[in-house]
Amino acid sequence: ILLLVAQVGCVSYRSVTEAPLPGGTAVRADLTVPTEFHLIDVAFPNTVSVAGEIVTHSPDTLTLSVTSLRSATGYSLPGAGETIRIPTDRVDRLQRRRFDLWRSAGLTAAAAIASALLFSSLDTDSGGTGGGPPDPPPQ
Predict the structure, then answer these.
(1) CB-based contacts of 63: which residues, under 8 Å, 6+ apart?
(2) What span, in angstroms and rounded, lies between the C-alpha atoms of 73 and 76?
(3) Using one digit for the tens of pLDDT, what is the confidence trace for 30-66?
(4) How many other CB atoms sit within 10 Å of the CB of residue 55?
(5) Burial 96-110 (b: 16+ CB within 10 A, else e)
(6) CA 9, CA 99: separation in Å to the nearest integer?
(7) d(C-alpha 67, C-alpha 69), whole Å
(8) At residue 92, what are phi and psi to the nearest 5 degrees?
(9) What's the whole-model pTM score?
(10) How many helices (H) and strands (E) does the chain have?
């Protein structure tokens, strides 16, 4: 459960205004126009959002190691660290991936409560006292 919380509930994206961001920063770039990118041998058209880690960030180019692409139709394609270059004039909004303590705490509490309710609702009573053979049937 904690691994699920770490993967799903612990992050949020916040818009950033400072530029350039240092290499290794996890970001999501929303694009001004749908763009086609190629990852290995796959063309992914109509990309509107790219997530990844910054390799380099200059005033005119954002170079990312891609973790995922999202198209205008809502489809997603996972990346495997392929490097792509995006002209900064095509970046509408740049968001930094951040650890979200409140979301993580809420998800952890909800998972703990759900687990406790599940385990308390299980009927483990077999009718006996737990020590010895079962009682004989009534006559």
Answers:
(1) 54, 55, 56, 57, 83, 84, 85, 86
(2) 9
(3) 999 999 998 888 899 999 999 999 999 998 999 999 9
(4) 15
(5) bbeebeeebeebbee
(6) 9
(7) 7
(8) -80, -45
(9) 0.65
(10) 2, 7
